[in-house]
Amino acid sequence: MGFDEYARSLSFEKDPLKLKFIMSSDLEYPDFDEDEQGFIVRLPLPRIGEGTLAFLGYTFPDDVDGRKKIVRLFRASVYHLSGHALSWKDFAYDGWREGKNDVLSNFVVSLVEDIWVNQCVATWYPDKLLDLGFAGAMMLARLRAIDNIRVQATRLMVSLMVYANTGLTGYVSDSDLGIVEPLYKLLKRFKEAVGRSLRDEGMDLLPQKLEAAESAYRALSEYGPIIEAPSPPFSENLGASSLFPPMKVGTQEWFEGLLAECVEGLSGGQSIVGQSQPDRVSEAETLQVFESHFLEKAKEAKILSRYEGPAQSTRFNSLGFPNKDYSEYLRAKARCKRSTSKMTEVLMGAMNEFMEDIRKKFGVLDLADAVQVVASKSERTDIFLKDEKIKQSFAWAIVVDASTSMRNVRDYALETAIILAESAGKVLLDMTSWSIFAFNDGFEIVKDFSEQYNSRVKARLGGLSFRGLSYMPDAIELAGRALAARREELKVMMVLSDGWPYGYTDIDSAASEVINNFVKAGMAVIGVGVQSGRMEYLFDSHCTSYTLKQFVDRFSTRFYEACDNAV
After folding, report:
1. By CB neighbour count within 10 A (0-12 exposed, 13-18 middle, 19+ buried), where does 273 fall?
2. What are the respective helix, strand and coil percentages of the chain, to the nearest 5?
3. Is the CB of residue 425 less than 8 Å from the CB of residue 457?
4. DSSP annotation string for 527-557
């Protein structure tokens, strides 16, 4: 179980169609957003250094204790951000935001929603407060001294942020006490209203949310300028901040006292199970998450090593794997469920034509069968042997154009790729006999031949990002080499694209040349026009579809013909 699976298992929102988790090595801090179907949580992955691990701007020694701390911070991020998914409806603030400063309004909305999340956890999931308290204590240990913050609005925002995420009121400058104390009371009243709403499901909390947001906004806007919006390192990132300088974490005895304060502040003083042992984390669970993560990275490195040599003769500027988005895969799969079933059925029938029984009704007599038919007085006539070589095994390579020109048909391209992948998973009994690749000006391995079609591969498929140029000839060359190395008798490559390779001179003729080379070598190469008729200019064997029904009907016909020609 890697970090992405771990996040889904920890999430308060269990429906992956409503909340998607995306892990990225490029992120420094988490991000929270909405789309038309639900919410998106982007989380950073730990970065490996020389004997160190970096996460959320902290640097830990790469030992068991350092890994435990990272996992605690990771859990706190998942709890906090998945908690937002239970409440946050950004459109509810749309009218309120009109005419307001973007930076300050974003901070105030986040502040109000943080109050809701932490009160929700304290009410429904009090055992999770230990990790949230740990993340809050780490935040306070790293926070710049409040009196060293020169901009008054920023100081006030920091005081409110600390209160919302730890329950502590001591992080305020003496000069700001008269301003902050009324705001503390405001937030406390809102927190109490949240508690009542959690016990009374019929209560509409939106008026109180907007009232608290408006009051906090008016108060803070008087003490500008507004130059940054502070946010805890483990929560949704509100932009660049100077308040949390990088921090090296070692063994700090004082930490337990600060942790206890944060847990007590978040819980409102109620007793929390395990509070006397705030560092009690399942060591086995921590090790499992990290070992799975490192094992996955090692496997990916091994796979990449097999492509690095051949890739040197191409123009690709990168070689790697897509980011993972399992929820997007599930969403797309749901949209094409019927078409997938139909394609599987049709392809199963088409492939059976090339793996049919070795007998037929005329030709070379099978003496053993003939004796049995005569003895039993059977009316069977299929007692003759075929005289041609029977194709009994298939290998597939699915190649998806993920360039910028495909962005407008992204959903349809993803659906057709999933239809083929799901069908391959059912009609090809050997999961290592097929692969999926994607390309733009880089080459991405979605599923290598050596991999199973598991949730990790499916998440990569859902995480395809459509950007960059379209180096189609290079992609066909690289995927074709991997496919040609297979031992199966019949090799089929399916290229899904809009038919517009782009990126260097004479790219169309280069594409035609590499396609013809593989066809001459006995490979079936099929161009699938994704809502575009351009593939007919590049591929002798091609089909174009604008609906999923057309795709199933036309591709299955073309698949049979291409295989028949390659036999």
Report:
1. exposed
2. 55, 15, 35
3. no
4. EEEES-SGGGGT-SSEEEESSHHHHHHHHHH
For the chain, what is the domain count? 3
Q: Mind listing the pLDDT tens digit for each residue in 494-540?
A: 999 999 999 999 999 999 999 999 999 989 999 999 999 999 999 99
- Token match 């790697």: residue? 320
Pairing of β 443-447 and β 434-439? antiparallel
Number of H helices, E strands in the chain: 18, 17
Of the residues 230, 265, 284, which one is the last residue of a structural domain?
A: 284
Tens digit of each residue's pLDDT (9 = 90 or more) over 100-142: 999 999 999 999 999 999 999 999 999 899 999 999 999 999 9
For residue 281, the one-letter residue type is V
What is the pTM for the complete model shown? Answer: 0.83
Does residue 379 sit in the same domain as residue 474? no
Tokens of 152: 């008054």
Tell me the mean pLDDT in the region 75-100: 90
384 and 328 in a common domain: no
User: Domain containing 403: what range?
Assistant: 318-355+391-566
Mutual angle of helices 337-353 and 548-566, in 10-degree steps: 20
Residue 15, pLDDT above cutoff 70: yes
H or E element, residue 497:
strand 490-497
Highest mean pLDDT pick, 80-94, 362-376, 380-394: 80-94
Q: Which tokens hold the place of 463?
A: 């995480």
Distance between CA atoms of 448 and 454, rounded to whole angstroms?
12
The reply to whether omega before 225 is within 30° of 0 (cis) is yes
Looking at the DSSP bridge assignments, the partners of residue 360 are 384
Residue 49 has pLDDT above 50, yes or no: yes
SS3 letters across 296-353: HHHHHHHHHHHHHHHHCCCCCCCEECCCCCHHHHHHHHHHCHHHHHHHHHHHHHHHHH
> Which helix H or strand E contains 430, and what residues bound it?
none
Cα maximum dimension of the chain:
109
CB 420 within 8 A of CB 410: no
Q: Is 291 among the domain residues?
A: no
Whether residue 293 lies inside any domain: the answer is no
468 touches 442 (CB < 8 A): yes
